[in-house]
Amino acid sequence: MAIITVAHTKGGVGKSMISWNLAGAFNGTILDLDFQRTLTRNNELRKQFGLKPFKVLEISSPDEFLSAMKKASLSEYIIVDTGGFDDNLVRLAIAYANIIITPAFENNSELFGLQTFADILNEIQQQINHEISSCVLINRAYHNATNFEVIKSICNSSPKFRLMNTIIRDRSIYRKTFNAAQTIYESTNFQAKSEINSLKKEIEQRIVNAIKECI
């Protein structure tokens, strides 16, 4: 079992979009911790549109989260979609994660949002006595952008963050497929599929590397 928690205390950074497409990439189970239930509702639309639904579990408490962990199979990928807030449930999902993915934009406002999230990661680390860091994913980047100095400087200055190699560009196909309750794999857009495939491979490799470090 691998637990991929998509988390950031800042809202509107694309956590649900990333989680949705990761569920498509890994054919995984979604744990919906967001009180807005975006992915739960999108999954209901899949059923209405005649598409094969994902396994989506609405999680509202730490006890429900722990119960879902106990019932998960060893071969299962768990994609945890969190809301843009900080509470005990989100912190539990972060503590249990094999990898934490934090989508972020290349702008100065990210500096403050990521600093706040770093403080939370430090607090969780102190509570569980285990090192925690998050993989920062540049999301919704302009199609021709190559300068990501704001995000790079944040990641270089904080031991809580590791910058991912994958970059997700700002493509309308992501919104189009999501609004149709589809993942990017149900489109014909080669570039977007390549980005999510790259993200999948990088996540797999980072999980493997983390396991090796613990041995």
From TrEMBL:
Transmembrane annotation, as ranges: none
Domain spans labelled CobQ/CobB/MinD/ParA nucleotide binding: 4-173
Domain of life: Bacteria
Record SUPFAM superfamilies: P-loop containing nucleoside triphosphate hydrolases
PANTHER family: COBQ_COBB_MIND_PARA NUCLEOTIDE BINDING DOMAIN-CONTAINING PROTEIN, P-LOOP CONTAINING NUCLEOSIDE TRIPHOSPHATE HYDROLASE
Protein name: ParA family protein
